Amino acid sequence: MQVYLVGGAVRDKLLNIPVYDKDWVVVGSNPDEMLSQGFTAVGKDFPVFLHPKTKQEYALARTERKSGSGYTGFECHFAPDVTLEEDLIRRDLTINAMAQTEDGTLIDPYGGQRDLNDRILRHVSDAFVEDPLRVLRLARFAAKLTHLGFTVAEETMSLMAQIANSGELEHLTAERVWQEWHKSLATQNPEVFLSVLRDCGALKVVLPELDCLFGVPQPEKWHPEIDTGVHTLMVAKQAAKLSSSLPVRFAAQVHDLGKGVTPQSEWPSHKMHCHTGVKIIKKLCERVRVPNEFKELALFVCEQHSNVHRAAELKASTKLKILNTMDVWRKPERLEEILLCCQADHAGRLGCEDNPYPQKAIFEDAYKAALSVEVKDIIADGFQGKTIRDELDKRRIEAIASIN
Ligand code: ATP
Ligand code: MG
To answer: Cofactor comment in the record (predicted)?
Structure first.
């Protein structure tokens, strides 16, 4: 049998970026031989094995043919006579369809290196359209590699649009959608994931709540970019600059979903969006099975961002009420996360990228002041039962007011 390094590891090594996981392809072998060498079988649909020591993935070379709808509708053929070239041609992108031998020789039958040098994300063959997941994967690779100058080839974009129009994207499971969205949040430019999906018409199928923000106007005085979709992409970009936390990046992307349901008669004003957005985020998170940690932060940011922006005008008692609602006493890291999202929202407007955001310090100071009040002092002063809570709030308000 011959073993080759394939996929992302080859690509990322050539790009001089860190390689996190190594995928291998095995030519000229069969499951029995793999098992006898100590590998364990993991693939349910495909012949994939884990190396006994490194636990890296080794897949038997295979060919694939479309046989039904969606990601699982594949007929997969693996046999010792499947060649490396036959295995590589079923892969999504030319830059993902290169292999490397143990001695470092590159095998590149489909022009991966040329496209890597030209910074092009290009499909390997027209069989690209057979798997709708590739639309999401491509958008994710665009997000990962855009800072190196990569763009999507025009012909590939057309195939993505063809998939988006075919109805095949509707067969993608929630897990697949979240898996790619989640991975895109960890890239340098998560906003590109959304914009590429938007450009090929996939966003309206996969995440219609985000797609419908495009074309919704906001008041020009606050939002020179006007369009809510454009604003959302800008906020997503700023959030990635400000924080490496994936929940923060996610919350920033969905914070304005409420603006998508404002009646047109009220445009460009969106008085209720913090309220209406909550319901939409809950439904979206349920559908895509977004983990709770992400959902919770997104809900707080949606509900509170307009309040936080008004920090300078708020009374001490209102600031405390907001801090109480955020439950920052039990989860202190939450305040910083919410404030970073609000800052991204503020900076994600045309011409405002470098504007200061004093609201953040106002809330941090209010939090610190409120935290200086000691419950044990309140008890020592003779308060009992429910009156402790009331006195705590009262002293916290005084503490916040004293720094104003
Ligand atoms: P990364 O691991 O950095 O996310 P990767 O390119 O290694 O990127 P994997 O999901 O690990 O992506 O897949 C390994 C390789 O398998 C890919 O490079 C590609 O060649 C192929 N591949 C994976 N999924 C698909 C798919 N849906 N369609 C076509 N080829 C795919
Ligand atoms: Mg990989």
So the answer is: Nickel for phosphatase activity.
* Secondary-structure class of domain 1-111 per CATH: alpha beta
Both structure tokens of 308: 């936080």
Tens-digit pLDDT string for the chain (404 aa) = 899 999 999 999 999 999 988 999 999 999 999 999 999 999 777 789 999 999 999 999 999 877 776 556 677 888 889 999 999 999 999 999 999 998 999 999 999 999 999 999 999 999 999 999 999 999 999 999 999 999 999 999 999 999 999 999 999 999 999 999 999 999 999 999 999 999 999 999 999 999 999 999 989 998 999 999 999 999 999 999 999 999 999 999 999 999 998 999 999 999 999 999 999 999 999 999 999 999 999 999 999 999 999 999 999 999 999 999 999 999 999 999 999 999 999 999 999 999 999 999 999 999 999 999 999 999 999 999 999 999 999 999 999 999 86
Number of helices (H), then strands (E), in the chain: 19, 11
The protein residue with its alpha carbon nearest to ligand 1, atom 28, reads 92
CA of 25 relative to ligand 2 center, distance in Å? 12
Buried b (16+ CB within 10 A) or exposed e, 187-222: bebbbbbbbbbbbbbbbbbbbebbbbbbebbbeeee
Q: Could you count the other beta carbons within 10 Å of the beta carbon of residue 385?
A: 7
According to the annotation, is 137 in a ligand binding site? yes
Buried b (16+ CB within 10 A) or exposed e, 117-139: eeebbbbbeebbbbbbbbbbbbb
As given in the structure block, the two tokens for residue 341 are 């999202």
Pocket test residue of 91, 100, 115, 133 for ligand 1, highest count of atoms within 8 A of CB = 91
Angle at 248 between CA 246 and CA 250, to 5 degrees: 70
Cα 177 versus chain centre, distance: 10
Q: Are strands 62-66 and 74-78 parallel, antiparallel or unpaired?
A: antiparallel
3-class DSSP state of 159 = helix
CA 211/CA 205 separation, integer angstroms: 9
Query: In DSSP terms, which residues pair with 6 in a beta bridge?
Result: 23, 99
